[in-house]
Design a protein that fits this description.
The protein has helices at 2-10, 12-29, 36-43, 52-77, 86-97, 101-134, 139-155, 161-175, 201-217, 221-225, 241-244, 248-262, 269-283, 296-319, 325-336, 345-348, 350-379, 386-405, 409-426, 432-454, 461-464, 466-494, and strands at residues 178-179, 186-187. With 495 residues, it is mainly alpha-helical. Helix 4 (52-77) runs antiparallel to helix 15 (325-336), helix 5 (86-97) packs antiparallel against helix 6 (101-134) and helix 12 (248-262) runs parallel beside helix 14.
Length: 495
């Protein structure tokens, strides 16, 4: 059986599909506004005439490539290509400004590959067991986990926790715009039917990070008019792969977090990346360097979000439950191929299952190899003169915003959020909490309502269930700890 599985994995057609999928995923993931779900959806029709293994390799390659690709624009132009790259941007972009863009990209690549390969190993050996554990999570636990994700991103987004909480609340408010998920009523659309579907987080992300950055750099009108605006000093990568591997503890912890989070349906890479970043900062001997170009701040979220790839396949293959939206598309592809996910796959079609699992490991190796070949080319984006780069960013953002639903209104929204973010950044309000809370908002609301319905309106359900109670308690500790530290520091100074 082993030789049969190996033969399917290393077949020329399989390797070709993996390479095409990874390349497409990296390119699309690096484009702000075009997510991994979009990439998989675009390539899905090409799998109809393929055998199920080759088709899955193409889509899995796209999935993994997009997870890494989101870090490219996050590092180079301060705009995460995918929502999960928000945390990568916190330290990745400062590294690029310091002339270390190539180092940041290589660190993101190696960490992504490590996380992906780790999760594929876990998928092979522990999939059925982890799936059973994940099934113990109900609505209260999902809600608590979302709270935890918000608490972590708030705690690592700046010195002023209050401002972080304000921005998180703003993001949650924005997530309520549109049609109510329960009774179908319209909320905060102000008579504009184009808002009935809600505000896509990608639109806000494009405005907050990309358009606001363009406005900020455009202040130096004189420099731009002469084409002399400051450019990033791009150097060759000075970091060797073996030097990055000394952060193996951070990669391992982040990979474990990503795999476990991915195995819980309805969570995904955003929560994984934020938790991984927070854990790396918490356990670091020099946490004060995070946010200022700390390479460990790039490694942690990238290992965490790519480890989701294997974790999300665990409930998908064993229970037929997608771990996130990208895997939902993959499940749709399986259904069209006549394959029914479930525990029966592990007994009736072992060869197919383990060929897919083993293929995921090879896909991550291919992603690392492609990244090492083209990383230097990616880094050169930062050398483009700003007088050329800034208009290009505006065009890309406008195209990305328009492509979401085909409304030009989205471009106006994107610019409006950009102007607002430009002002808020000047007032030292952190942006990542708002984006993350928007992404998690609908999940939080659905699980909150479901939990309260189960408890007949009583909020006690969140503290009477041990797992949700512990998660919420840890979240509160994360939010309160900065205030306690400041209090002790003030007392020590007074003494």
């Amino acid at each position: 059986m082993f030789l049969t599985i190996l033969g399917q994995i290393v077949a020329p057609t399989s390797i070709l599909m993996m390479c095409i999928g990874v390349a497409a995923g990296i390119i699309i993931g690096a484009m702000p506004g075009l997510s991994g779900v979009f990439a998989i959806s675009v390539l899905l029709p090409f799998t109809f005439g393929m055998d199920s293994v080759s088709g899955m390799y193409l889509l899995l390659g796209t999935f993994c490539g997009a997870l890494f690709g989101g870090s490219i624009s996050a590092i180079l132009i301060n705009t995460p290509g995918t929502p999960s790259a928000c945390c990568t941007m916190i330290d990745g972009y400062p590294m690029a400004q310091q002339g270390r863009a190539a180092d940041a990209l290589k660190a993101a690549l190696i960490a992504s590959g490590f996380g992906g390969m780790f999760s594929s190993f876990v998928l092979i050996f522990l999939a059925p067991y982890i799936a059973k554990a994940a099934m113990n999570f109900a609505s209260p636990e999902y809600f608590a986990l979302c709270i935890f994700g918000l608490a972590t991103i708030i705690s690592v987004s700046g010195d002023n926790v209050v401002k972080g909480i304000i921005m998180a609340m703003l993001g949650l408010l924005l997530s309520t715009v549109g049609t109510d998920i329960t009774d179908g009523s319209n909320r905060f659309i102000f008579g504009n039917f184009k808002l009935q579907a809600g505000i896509a987080p990608v639109i806000v992300m494009l405005g907050v990070f990309a358009f606001a950055e363009v406005l900020s750099k455009s202040l130096d009108v004189k420099a731009l008019s002469h084409g002399t605006a400051k450019q990033m000093d791009i150097q060759k990568s000075t970091v060797k792969v073996r030097e990055l591997l000394k952060y193996w503890k951070t990669m391992l912890k982040s990979s474990v977090i990503g795999t476990l989070i991915g195995a819980i349906p309805g969570t995904g890479a955003v929560i994984s990346a934020t938790l991984s970043y927070n854990e790396a900062k918490r356990s670091s001997k020099h946490p004060e360097t995070f946010g200022k170009g700390e390479i460990e701040g790039v490694i942690a979220p990238e290992a965490g979000n790519n480890a989701v790839s294997g974790g999300a396949l665990i409930p998908a293959l064993t229970l037929g439950i997608p771990g996130d939206s990208s895997v939902a598309v993959l499940l749709g592809a399986l259904t069209m191929q006549g394959i029914t996910p479930g525990m029966a796959l592990f007994t009736d079609d072992k060869v197919w299952v383990y060929a897919i699992m083993g293929g995921l490991f090879v896909i991550n190796i291919i992603m690392v190899l492609q990244g090492l070949l083209f990383t230097r080319g990616f880094a050169k984006v930062a050398q483009i003169p700003e007088i050329i780069l800034l208009p290009c960013i505006i065009v890309l953002c406008s195209v990305g915003a328009f492509a979401i639903s085909g409304y030009s209104f989205n471009i106006i929204l994107m610019m409006g959020f950009g102007v607002a973010a430009f002002i808020l950044k000047r007032l030292d309000f952190p942006m990542p909490p708002m984006i993350v809370s928007m992404v998690l908002g609908s999940t939080m609301e659905a699980n909150l309502r479901r939990s309260l319905s189960l408890a007949q309106g009583s909020a006690s359900i969140f503290v009477t269930r041990p797992v949700s109670c512990i998660i919420i308690a840890v979240s509160l500790i994360l939010l309160v700890s900065p205030f306690i530290k400041k209090l002790f520091a003030a007392r020590k100074k007074a003494e």
